[in-house]
Amino acid sequence: MMKNEKILLVNRPKGTPQKSDFRFEEAAVPELQNDQVLVKTIYLSVDPYMRGRMSDRKSYIPPFELNEVISGGVVGQVVESRSGELAEGDFVIGNLGWQRYNAVSDAEVRKLDPSLAPLTANLGVLGMTGLTAYFGLLDIGNPQEGETVVVSGAAGAVGTIVGQIAKIKGARVVGIAGSDEKIAYLKEELGFDEAINYKTEKVYEALKTACPDGVDVYFDNVGGEISDSVLGLINKGARIPVCGQIALYNLEKADVGPRMQSQLLINSALMKGFIVSDYAAYFEEGAIELAKWLKEGKLSYSENIVDGFENTIDAFLGLFTGENTGKQLVKVAEPGNIQG
Amino acid sequence: MMKNEKILLVNRPKGTPQKSDFRFEEAAVPELQNDQVLVKTIYLSVDPYMRGRMSDRKSYIPPFELNEVISGGVVGQVVESRSGELAEGDFVIGNLGWQRYNAVSDAEVRKLDPSLAPLTANLGVLGMTGLTAYFGLLDIGNPQEGETVVVSGAAGAVGTIVGQIAKIKGARVVGIAGSDEKIAYLKEELGFDEAINYKTEKVYEALKTACPDGVDVYFDNVGGEISDSVLGLINKGARIPVCGQIALYNLEKADVGPRMQSQLLINSALMKGFIVSDYAAYFEEGAIELAKWLKEGKLSYSENIVDGFENTIDAFLGLFTGENTGKQLVKVAEPGNIQG
């Protein structure tokens, strides 16, 4: 007998989320309606932006409902089909519930070809993560050959891809991350020109040395004081894609710091927030380019895969301790035989 | 005998500039070199941005030199010519010294046709002031019909033009200014839809009422807490041209406030600093459009003209007390017979 299990949000977190904000609940496997498929979760993605949806305030996407299942990026496999489009054994990706089984219409998921790329890459470098890096860097940041690109949260899922795309475009790339292991990874594995450990170095001073020609593009994944330091070094005409503000997600009080309008003014600099869905009309273009670079070996990615649905919350909470490198995933089940 | 007189910067102001930071000095009228003309100052322009040049720090234009003559927008008349291009009696405009006479090459000034517009309009609505409003609003703000545009420093030289151009483009326009006279002027003379007196009203609350559909474009002339309030009300996809930060020019300590990256992020909003010279390649286009609107009666402007070179410093200091409406000018001399 298959049994379903889901993760509900039961409290809106105050500050850093706690385990007690979530509850695991057993449930029956949902019955299929016409045109629906039953998708067994194979991998699920935990992402920093989800913290925002746990609060009940205006944001770019609506908040999660209390006592409802949390949803996010999921790669799964069809185990039962009442759809003409999808067959048992098909692999699919979608924004689905954090549960072992989701009943969804075929329009809610996209079929994956597992021969093109590893299943997990679809939740990372070829998925929303890669597209976030692609559009934020190229559309807003628009790095030119020889320019200096700084990326914070550089060892994270988005940051690692941003830095590599900037290198592909011929820029000098400087990363900011939080451990010596990460620094070594960025410089030795991903080809960053310089990387700064914000926990052991003075960011402003270290950046000044690492960016002798100033900063032309700052891809901001973190906000807070790290960003203040980078903003002090921007060049005339700098571009600043604001992608995440992980330093702020768990703040309970107002985030106060130097107002940066003067810096933007004296440098004729541009700062723009974005969310990947702003570029939905161009996803296809981005995905093709990312897949090409991946195939050509110009783009590598790292994943941190935690095993077991029961470890989902720990994996999510780990995003805020600065310990993970690359894309954080949870493996929920083994993929079955492709024939289902 | 003609005598020259100049205004020197003798101290870098700490906080708000003081009279003692400047010195009037008599001097000989400069001798002309070949291809030079001697320009008698008729009107000079005092502008908030000049405060920035009085400090010795990185900005978009180099600082004024200590013990040297200050320079800014001047309309003058040629009283002696060794140039083939300009004749005695010609009116010219340029970035010239705060002095009664400037000796300049003909390339440093542009000839004006006094039959096209009042001389003073060339320092305001048809000059750098008008072009600042034009490019900042249209290129960065890009207001669409029916959108809401908020402008701070609304009764100032740039703000009055921004609001009127936004109305020409079909937007709802809300101004923020500092006196009931200014509020009345904006609403009754310039056709602003709403105007808020930041000295007597709670800006955030008043804006919320005045902008029931939120804020699509915020033309920021002032910075500081007023801007914090506006930023709390921006819509998805908002655009924020940062033109001036008059609240900050005289600050001695760091300007600290809520960091606004989160607001930009959750609204996919764009903020961009600029200086009018960023658009130098397009000045002709802007000037033609502004002159057309002026001729059609779609654009009105107000000037505050102080009489007498000796009152230049008072006029400049008055910019920071929030008392002036429209463009602040100093009349230095009567224009002579057009034949010279």
UniProtKB/TrEMBL annotation, chains A, B:
Question: Any idea where the Enoyl reductase (ER) domain is?
Answer: 19-330
- Which InterPro entries did the record assign? ADH-like_C, ADH_N_2, ER, GroES-like_sf, MDR_fam, NAD(P)-bd_dom_sf
Gene3D superfamilies in UniProt = Medium-chain alcohol dehydrogenases, catalytic domain, NAD(P)-binding Rossmann-like Domain
The highest taxon in the source lineage is Bacteria
Q: Per its UniProt record, what CDD domains does this chain match?
A: PGDH
Keywords on this record? Oxidoreductase
**Pfam families in the record:** ADH_N_2, ADH_zinc_N
Q: What is this protein called?
A: NADP-dependent oxidoreductase
